[in-house]
Write a structure and sequence with these properties.
The protein has about 170 residues and is mainly α. The chain folds into 2 domains: about 1-90, Uncharacterised protein YqeY/AIM41, N-terminal domain (Hypothetical Protein Yqey, Chain: A, domain1, Orthogonal Bundle), CATH 1.10.1510; about 100-160. It has 7 helices and 2 strands, in the order H-H-H-H-H-E-H-H-E.
Length: about 170
């Protein structure tokens, strides 16, 4: 991931694409900040997963800024933020579509039920995000999974070896 970003910086410099170059340098700066923080904690340099998290956070920040600029009557600044979002998304995995999301969630639910019960939130974190990290937001996966099961996403069913959820609960009548 780092190499790809470095190559893109070189290409942007050669092409004279200043907006892209600025955004790429912001990405490199954020990664370097994470590396420094990791070093202070005795960890290795940021992994590709951590870099994906950094990029996702940067996209979210810019989406919030663009909305604030639009609400404040500054469409030109909102457009700049959206341009940066497009550059950042070039480095993120392709997002899953509706049918893909449903199929992946059905597989995770089947795996969890086969294991003898589950907590919906834990199921998302452990099962779904493990195989599809960066391709679907947790908010979208929780909503879709809740709809698939016909229940709220905060309710736990069955038993989970990692969490104390008391006695076994049954699904509500739908």
């Amino acid at each position: 991931m780092r190499e790809k970003i470095t190559e893109e910086v070189k290409a942007a410099m050669k092409a004279g694409d200043k907006p892209r170059l600025t955004t790429l340098r912001l990405i490199q700066s954020a990664i370097k900040d994470r590396d420094i923080a990791n070093r202070g904690n005795g960890k290795d340099a940021a992994s590709d997963d951590e870099i994906l998290q950094i990029l996702a956070k940067m996209v979210k920040q810019r989406e919030e800024s663009a909305k604030a600029f639009e609400d404040g009557g500054r469409p030109e600044l909102a457009a700049n933020e959206r341009a940066e979002i497009a550059i950042l998304r070039d480095f993120l995995p392709r997002q899953m579509g509706g049918a893909e999301t449903e199929a992946a969630i059905r597989a995770v639910i089947a795996e969890a039920v086969e294991a003898g019960g589950f907590c919906l939130t834990k199921c998302i974190e452990d099962g779904f995000q493990r195989g599809h990290r960066g391709r679907l937001s947790q908010k979208a996966s929780e909503a879709t999974m809740g709809l698939q099961l016909g229940m709220r996403n905060s309710i736990c069913y069955g038993t989970s070896p990692d969490a104390d959820h008391g006695s076994m609960k049954t699904a509500p009548e739908v």
